[in-house]
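User: Sequence for DUF4365 domain-containing protein below. Tokens please.
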Amino acid sequence: MALAQPDPGGTARAEAPGPRPPQQPEAPLRGSLATTACMETLQVGYLHAVAAAAGCSLSQPFPDNGIDWHVSHGAAAHTVDDEVTIKVQLKCTYQIPPHPAGGAFSFTLDNAHLAKLARHPVAVHRILVVMIVPRSRDDWLRAGPGGLDLRHCCYWTNLAGHPVTGRQRTTVRVPTSRIFDDRALCDIMARVGAGGRP
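Assistant: Structure tokens for DUF4365 domain-containing protein:
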């Protein structure tokens, strides 16, 4: 059935029956926050989701002394204490493609950051978590009744004992087999809770 629509001149006209061309979704009005600041927020959201699923608590050191988060995990099965903690340094990049080939990808750290992460032995173990995201914020997430798709992925590594080799920055290798999710975090905490390394 055709519906009459008033036109700007005040006369009515009938709409032609038939399919309408598909509407292109309008680009959302995103805030003016810098992309790097948004990347930091996104990786914190990822960490919170992983910690929640793993049954861990989070705290931020204040002031920040080169470590972003403390993650704690309580379990009666731990032998060194009933609650163990690790320190987490978060990094985020869109300069590495998703599904990096070759078993590991290269990531460059300032030497001061690496020295803190590479310190060994330590009372509280540290890990580096690197999130790879799409370049465009339009591709960072999709939400629907079936779930929330947050792209792309975080990977973790333990850099204890890693040498500082560059003059100001050093490149490290992050294994792609070490996907940072709730099961990985539980396994890390089980090893630390038994007196081992992450």
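Residues 34-105+124-161+175-193 form a domain with the Trna Endonuclease; Chain: A, domain 1 fold (CATH 3.40.1350).
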